[in-house]
Amino acid sequence: MSDFHQFTLSKNYIETLRTNGITTPTEIQTEVIPLLTEGKDVIAQAQTGSGKTLSFLLPMLEKIDPNDHTIQALIVAPTRELALQLTSELERMSGDVNMLAVYGGKDVHQQVKRLDKHVQIVIGTPGRLLDHIRRETIDLSNVSMLVLDEADQMLQIGFLDEVEDIIKRTPSSRQTALFSATIPSDINKLAYKHMKNPQQVRIQSRGRTVEEIDQYVVETTDRRKQDALRKVIKETQPFLGIIFCRTKRRVSKLYGELKAQGYLVDELHGDLTQKKREKVMESFRDAKIQLLIATDVASRGLDVEGVTNVYNYDIPQDVESYIHRIGRTGRAGEDGVAITFIAPKDKNMLSMIEKGIGKKLKKQEV
């Protein structure tokens, strides 16, 4: 049976999935749901967009005791955007479980008040979780399930020590699940140090990169790059597009210049307030803006339907970042287009990416 009835899930969750148009489990859901339901620890390697979120949310919801008003489950996420996305997915699945997202940029005292109100699932970023732990406003001593989501990003941002501190505040008897697009040695060490005989699940991304995405490269110079971008936008006519830049400063500079030229554009990076970030994402999801200019870290957890084009204004610094960026388009079987702009100095990086994905990028003339 290739539907959710094959798992030991409550009928109301299966019905909620069906109402949301989800009837067939993805590969990672088929592998991970039974393992987590049986109480096993899991290390799962899968790209964003594989359906991994439901693979741990469904078993987690099944384990929540509605009569127990302590924190029973904890999800640690690297960014505020991902924490919010996970919270909204949880809210969609369950109306009667008390949950709270804790992250920087929101009033900590408001979160403290909410934590007093019988919260059963907490979704948080490492920094703000530790803040609450130090204030003794959060008690993780009854956590029976811990999920570390996008673990490689936590490592990349420099949160590894914080994550270890958080793990130590939970009972050693807890069940642990770790999800990551890549499993570098530091993540492996962390996993085996804190997990009990973890089951490894690896979902191969098809062809290393998503096959539905048409990938091109545009050769230009740093001086002519912005002109080349404008021409490519005109030629490709995106419905929704994301433009990736290397730094916050470059995001803001490009945003100012495109906005002045009349483009429907906004920016997303770490210097924005949480309220502003949420407003930007809402405008983008509602297609009130056509182009979103973002840094890599800000884009984690950025899952928007209808993104037709990704533009790598600055070439990614490694293969995994390239795969992650272009994975923002071509979701759910739709076609997508990814265009990378390179200056002469970027040719070695391009060769490394092409080698990593096992494919030569087609050149596009502007």
- Portion in helices: 40-55%
Distance between the termini: 50 Å
Total number of strands: 14
- Count up the helices: 15
Q: What would your notes on this structure say?
A:
The chain has 2 domains: 4-202, 3-Layer(aba) Sandwich (Rossmann fold), CATH 3.40.50.300; 213-363, 3-Layer(aba) Sandwich (Rossmann fold). The protein contains 15 helices and 14 strands. The model has no long low-confidence stretch (mean pLDDT 87). The strands form 2 sheets. The chain has a 7-stranded parallel beta sheet with strand order 3-4-2-5-6-1-7, with helices on both faces. A 7-stranded parallel beta sheet has the order 10-11-9-12-13-8-14, sandwiched between helices. The protein is globular, with a radius of gyration of 21 Å. Helix content is 41%, strand content 17%. By secondary structure, the protein is of the alpha/beta class.
Write a short abstract of this structure.
The protein is an alpha/beta fold and 366 residues long.
Write the layout of secondary structure elements.
Layout: H1 11-19, H2 27-37, E1 42-45, H3 52-63, E2 73-76, H4 80-93, E3 99-102, H5 108-115, E4 121-124, H6 126-135, E5 145-148, H7 151-157, H8 160-168, E6 175-180, H9 185-194, E7 199-202, E8 213-219, H10 225-236, E9 241-244, H11 248-260, E10 265-268, H12 274-285, E11 291-294, H13 296-299, E12 309-312, H14 319-326, E13 336-342, H15 347-357, E14 362-363
Parallel strand pairs: 1-6, 1-7, 2-4, 2-5, 3-4, 5-6, 8-13, 8-14, 9-11, 9-12, 10-11, 12-13
Keywords: ATP-binding, Helicase, Hydrolase, Nucleotide-binding
Protein name: DEAD/DEAH box helicase
Domain Helicase C-terminal: 212-366
